[in-house]
Amino acid sequence: MLNQGWWDEEEEKGWRKSSRKMVTGRFPPPRDFGEGFWGGKGADAAPQVMEAFEQAERKPKPNVQLLFSDVYREMPPHLRRQQEALEQHLQHYGEHYPLEHFEK
């Protein structure tokens, strides 16, 4: 989207700011959970929650191959075909995906 001129860093900052307001406004902490909920901080915990989301977003995503390898002890034939198709697709069109955000 950046390369196409459809989005820029300023729009990203604005979107993050407005989405934070939307999330923290729509999902205030329940008042009936007492001191134990969110560490007893209530609404004050919202910035820490958003920061935790941002930190998680900065971490590399799991390797794409885990989509296929972490479910079955032995991979069924239909998943093997899907895995091969994905590998071929990414070899051909990989530059169109943010693969640098994934573990190798």
UniProtKB/TrEMBL annotation:
GO terms for biological process: branched-chain amino acid catabolic process. InterPro entries: Alpha-ketoacid_DH_E1_comp (IPR050771), THDP-binding (IPR029061). Its cofactor is thiamine diphosphate. Residues 1-33 are annotated as: Disordered. One of its GO terms (molecular function) is branched-chain 2-oxo acid dehydrogenase activity. Keywords: Oxidoreductase, Thiamine pyrophosphate. The keyword Oxidoreductase applies. It comes from the Eukaryota. Its EC number is 1.2.4.4. It catalyses: N(6)-[(R)-lipoyl]-L-lysyl-[protein] + 3-methyl-2-oxobutanoate + H(+) = N(6)-[(R)-S(8)-2-methylpropanoyldihydrolipoyl]-L-lysyl-[protein] + CO2. The branched-chain alpha-keto dehydrogenase complex catalyzes the overall conversion of alpha-keto acids to acyl-CoA and CO(2). It contains multiple copies of three enzymatic components: branched-chain alpha-keto acid decarboxylase (E1), lipoamide acyltransferase (E2) and lipoamide dehydrogenase (E3). Belongs to the BCKDHA family. This is 2-oxoisovalerate dehydrogenase subunit alpha. It comes from Anhinga rufa. The gene is Bckdha.
